[in-house]
Specification:
single chain; 234 residues; 9 helices; globular
């Protein structure tokens, strides 16, 4: 863990991880097939195991002590989840699953980006991430979190036809996510670091903040990809 960091930052982030898990459970539980409750429980158990593994690795400084090699150990936080997403989008059963997920609930999921951005801002104040990773710098991802409830509330419903608007919002929000991901990776103390040499992005190398790239970011990314696929196939 990061020394001398106010406890409220870690607590808020932990609650954000929990909120992400709850909202994602709501997404898969409200999917179209009748057996979604059992499927949802299995998926959540798998995610809890994944979160536990990543938490233990972060607590034991696995990522913070393996930054200079190539590829850095940090890639183990993201590659398994990205591989899983790839499998879902390229297999018949995976496509059937993602096409059954409810768009409106997926959109609500993006509200987790608001507390994430607050945490990043506080982490920058305490020299754990660079300012460029916050809304005071190059990161405008909080806009997606603020607008998500508006899109979810006003653009869905049997008598509403705002598919193009929802699609545009998803593309913009996905772009905002990719922007902060690229800046975060290139600001980390790896051999290919390009930004923020004065204050590298070290927070994601420690528990609980390693769960941001290991869990929250892949879930949000998955949500956008699912939404875009469904909207473009209509």
């Amino acid at each position: 863990m990061i020394n001398n960091l106010p406890i409220y930052i870690s607590v808020l982030f932990g609650l954000t991880v929990l909120l992400t898990l709850i909202l994602f459970y709501a997404v898969i539980k409200n999917a179209a097939p009748d057996n979604t409750t059992s499927n949802a429980n299995i998926i959540i158990i798998i995610l809890l195991i994944w979160i536990t593994i990543q938490s233990l690795l972060g607590l034991n400084n696995f990522y913070s002590t393996g930054t200079k090699g190539f590829p850095p150990r940090f890639f183990l936080t993201v590659l398994p989840m990205l591989l899983l997403i790839l499998i879902l989008f390229t297999t018949k059963s995976g496509k059937a699953f993602i096409d059954s997920l409810p768009l409106r609930t997926i959109t609500w999921l993006n509200i987790v980006r608001i507390p994430v951005e607050l945490v990043l801002y506080w982490l920058s104040i305490h020299k754990a991430v660079p300012v460029l990773m916050t809304f005071a710098g190059r990161n405008f991802d909080i806009v997606a979190g603020i607008t998500a409830p508006i899109i979810a509330f006003f653009c869905f419903g049997p008598k509403k036809n705002h598919r193009k608007l929802i699609l545009v919002w998803n593309f913009i929000s996905l772009g905002l996510l990719m922007n902060i991901v690229v800046n975060a990776v290139l600001s980390a103390p790896f051999s290919f670091q390009r930004f923020a040499f004065y204050q590298p992005n070290i927070a994601v190398l420690y528990f609980p903040f390693d769960l941001l790239p290991a869990f929250i970011v892949p879930v949000v990314l998955f949500g956008h990809l699912v939404s875009i696929r469904q909207l473009m196939n209509e």
